[in-house]
Design goal:
globular; 27% helix; alpha/beta; Rossmann fold; five-stranded parallel sheet; 317 residues
């Protein structure tokens, strides 16, 4: 049977996490279908047909789906899921909110945060904040999975010729209603898909000092992240949190500034290609996973790094 991937999107563009999830789905079965639920998604559905690994796009377009309330999405997916062996979503806020509801409606156990796939019934996932790896085997008729996007490459979003099928909207009369949303806007790259991430911890001492990180990030065209300690201290919003209870990232370069390296934070970034740690505490656990470490006061080191980057830019220009 085919594998069904639930698309994460904003009604206009697919999130990159969906492309990572499609790659994971293809490791289970070559027949991969994509389900897109939203409002005014005709253009999105048409462009999704060209994704290389997709053979069919299922589309449900209704104004009640505009804000992706899981209580409204779940019944539609449950009815569709009966024709599939696997239903997969990214292990993002979207997937973590939606899959448990589908699991409850189907009375099926969910396998979460998968980082590897051995075969159609055996999956690899981290436990104990990534300090141990578990191999999970299932024998369920329908497998519900969330995929850690950073563990799989993005698939090509061109070259495909998928068919398009419309599926009916199911009005579940959910008691949950959308009120409003506040979106953090930034000219910097998105944290989950950035090539370079600069993260700050409690060592920055206050929110004003995060300007140092913003300046460094702007020089590197990097996204800004933070440890839970910095978020809990009110230095920065929780949408920037990297870690077990925040975003999982795996950029080409991760720069940890004033972050001690609690295991919960390491679980969210230790798959980064190159890790640079800046911390004046030589005993900080972050140095155990860092490829490069600088034992220095960040308030001296970061301005010096910015100055050097300015000089390099002047030479290049």
């Amino acid at each position: 049977m085919a594998v069904l991937v639930i698309a994460e999107h904003d009604n206009q563009v697919l999130k990159t996490s969906t492309l990572n999830t499609i790659t994971a789905a293809q490791k289970i079965n070559n027949e991969v279908h994509l389900i897109i639920l939203g409002k005014d998604i005709q253009t999105l559905s048409d462009t999704s047909k060209s994704i290389h690994l997709i053979s069919k796009v299922l589309k449900c377009d209704n104004e009640k789906l505009e804000n992706f309330l899981p209580e409204i999405l779940a019944p539609i997916i449950v009815k569709t899921a009966l024709s599939y062996s696997h239903v997969i979503a990214p292990a993002s806020t979207f997937g973590k909110n939606l899959l448990p509801r589908i699991s409850a409606l189907l009375d099926t156990t969910q396998v979460s945060d998968i980082i590897g796939i051995e075969n159609e019934n055996t999956f690899i996932r981290p436990i104990y904040a990534g300090n141990a790896i578990s191999h999970v085997q299932t024998n369920q008729e329908i497998n519900l999975l969330t995929i850690r996007p950073s563990s799989f490459e993005k698939c090509e979003n061109s070259g495909g010729e998928a068919t398009l099928e419309e599926i009916p909207f199911i009005d579940s009369e959910a008691k949950t209603h959308f009120v409003s949303k506040e979106v953090s806007k930034s000219d910097r790259p998105e944290l989950g898909s950035a090539r370079i991430v600069v993260s700050g911890g409690r060592g920055l001492e206050n929110s004003d000092n995060f300007k140092l990180l913003y300046d460094l990030a702007d020089k590197l065209n990097a996204a800004v992240g933070a440890s839970r300690a910095a978020v809990d201290s009110g230095y920065i919003g929780n949408e920037y949190q990297v870690g077990q209870t925040g975003k999982m990232v795996a950029p080409e370069l991760y720069i940890a500034v004033g972050i001690s390296g609690a295991i919960q934070h390491l679980a969210g970034m230790k798959e980064s290609k190159v890790i640079v740690a800046i911390n004046k505490d030589l005993e900080a656990p972050i140095f155990n996973v860092a490829d490069y470490g600088l034992s220095s006061d960040l308030f001296q080191a970061i301005p010096e790094i910015i100055k050097e980057l300015d000089l390099l830019n002047q030479i290049d220009s």
